[in-house]
Amino acid sequence: MFPGQGSQYPDMGKEFLDINNKYSKYFKISSKIAGRDLMEIISGESGRGLLDNTRFSQISIYSLSCALNDYIIGELSVNKRLISTLLGHSLGEYSALYSSGAYSFKQGAELVWYRGKIMSEANQKTEGMMAAVLGTEINVIEGVLAGFKDKVYVANYNDYSQTVISGYKQEVREAVSDLIEHGAKRVIPLKVNIASHCPLMAEVSNRLEEFIGKNIKFGDMKLPFFSTTEVGYKNKNDLVKTLTGQLTNPIRWVESIEYLLDRGINVFLEIGPGKVLSGLVGRIARKKGREVMVLNTSKTEDIEDLKNSLVREGFIYEA
Questions:
Q1: Which residues are catalytic, by number?
Q2: Is residue 218 a part of any domain in this protein?
Q3: Could you tell me if 152 and 271 lie in one domain?
Q4: What whole-number distance in Å separates Cα of residue 39 and Cα of residue 31?
Q5: Considering the domain boundaries, does residue 166 fall inside one?
Q6: Per the domain annotation, does 155 fall within a domain?
Q7: Local structure of 88: helix, strand or coil
Q8: 132: closest CA among 168, 163, 178, 174?
Q9: Are residues 117 and 148 located together in one domain of the fold?
Q10: CB within 10 Å: which end of the chain, N or C, has fewer?
Q11: pTM (2 d.p.)
Q12: How many CB atoms lie within 10 A of CB 257?
């Protein structure tokens, strides 16, 4: 599993890169594409707040996720025959597609950079906002949002008690007030300055489709890729529709994890910064009464735990 925008944090990946310096090459490639030193941005040396800027957060998360992917699957010699599914949350689908072999790291970085750029430009025209609503049933949220038709939308169905809304900034703030009045335990503005996964991204979706048509030729995928907006496995011929539709449609994370659990999948690896997806999967599995192993790469000790667990479970050829 590969995380999306909002999972970034200062100095993410620093410990890993200090120990495994050769993986800094990923950031050199992406920094050249972005025209800025991404490691300086991640460390905060290029100015406060740049890491949370859509243009830089997306390509930074993608770069770290791909570096960690190649360390885990390549250097640790994970048995690829035991990997049944690759999936991502929003931006994370681009890292998942790199892992699948759909394109090279550089091609993916160029695609992610362009995506972040046009999403940022769209927000400058139409100021948007996203917020996570905690402890509220989805029917209550949808009932409140009915009063904000064509202004605020459900963007992410993350777990049974966490839903993300997206839309025009002023209307999202008004919807937040209404949701609190209707019993929402907590509402958290997300570290994104866009209104993604809703119809406000229609123009961005069209521009992305044009860019892909001119610049990207998807290769045959060597590992199965699962779309969390369409809740199904996709091949290379589906990817234009999947990636462009992802911008205007909600992320159906709960349905996706339920689907994988029902297929007997019980080991989940979150590859990238943070532990957001790990927490979501754990809560969904508990609600379904399923015991699962959830591992992540947030810190050096987490990577070591992941390595030891994979050796113990027979996922790695050699320790």
A1: 90, 197
A2: yes
A3: no
A4: 8
A5: yes
A6: yes
A7: strand
A8: 163
A9: no
A10: C
A11: 0.95
A12: 27
